Amino acid sequence: MGRQRGYDVSGGRSTSAPRPPVPSCVGSAAPARETAGIRFFTHAAQALAVNPPHPADFPVLARIKHLGIVPGRDFDAERFDADALAEIEAGADAARQAILGSPSAFGTEANGWRTSVDNMGVYGNSYFKRAVIAAGGLGANTPEDAVHPVLAVDADSAPVVGENDYILHVDADALPPADAFWSITMYDAEGFQAANAIDRFALGDRDPLACNADGSLDIHISHRSPGAERQTNWLPASLGPLGITMRLYAPRPEALDGRWAPPPVRRI
């Protein structure tokens, strides 16, 4: 059986009929009164018209109707004067900053990792948390499906950067408790996977990891190779701030109730 090497997302072209022209926005001018906040409320009203709110959303709908956001109606920015528009924009900007600045504070901290299980994947009326998750990764699994500890600091409470070398030591009786699989993925400061010499972006129990004589495991995290004898357990890092995420799919109860946490990442 051949190995699939990738996907084509170009949207295959038909030879029987030409594709319709793509509308161009070049040269179009935005309304004079449009701001980021007004643009958001306009799109929100349009979304509510297409996707009716859940009955549980009506308490918040009663609050935002004073802004003119009512299911089935277009948002009318012309009803506000300049001062009101400035207040709307300031509020939208404050919300944006709060959303983008809060992921690092979510969850419970242990050994430098933060793990969030409350309301993950099923948010109910936790609109703020849903917005934070959507901003960071579009969506999230429920904890019963997967948990994602995120490394915040090293064992000395210092930021984790690619200029340093680290080791993640896991005792034999403390391996990530997952019935499906576990992995550790490396991201750069922008949340992307960075190119490295061996094209490796994650390590986990599906890889041929080399355990120590006592059954424990050492993951080497560094920009430079730790040497040929340790390369099997090397997770390459880019330079600058690092984003390291552990994933446990089908986690066992101890990963959900706090009895187990990832061990600290130590600088060496």
Structural account:
This protein is 21% helix and 18% strand. It has 268 residues and is of the alpha+beta class. Strands 3-10-6-7 form a four-stranded antiparallel sheet. It has a four-stranded mixed sheet with strand order 9-8-5-11, with no helix packed on it. Mean pLDDT is 85; it is low at 12-33.
Task: Give descriptors for this structure.
5 helices, alpha+beta, 268 residues, 4-stranded mixed beta sheet
- Which strand order does the major sheet show? 3-10-6-7
Task: Report the portion of residues in β strands.
Answer: 15-25%
**Biggest sheet overview:** 4 strands, antiparallel
Low-confidence stretches: 12-33
Q: Report Rg.
A: 24 Å
Query: What fraction, in percent, of the residue positions are helical?
Result: 10-25%
Quickly give the structural class: alpha+beta
Mean of residue pLDDT values: 85
Number of strands: 11
* Count of alpha and pi helical runs: 5
Shape: elongated
Termini separation comes to 43 Å
Order of helices and strands: HHHEEHEEEEEEEEHE
Give a brief description.
The protein has helices at residues 36-50, 58-64, 82-101, 127-137, 253-256, and strands at residues 108-110, 113-115, 146-147, 150-151, 166-170, 178-187, 202-204, 217-222, 234-236, 243-251, 265-267. The radius of gyration is 24 Å and the shape is elongated.
Break the fold down into its secondary structure elements and pairings.
Elements: H1 36-50, H2 58-64, H3 82-101, E1 108-110, E2 113-115, H4 127-137, E3 146-147, E4 150-151, E5 166-170, E6 178-187, E7 202-204, E8 217-222, E9 234-236, E10 243-251, H5 253-256, E11 265-267
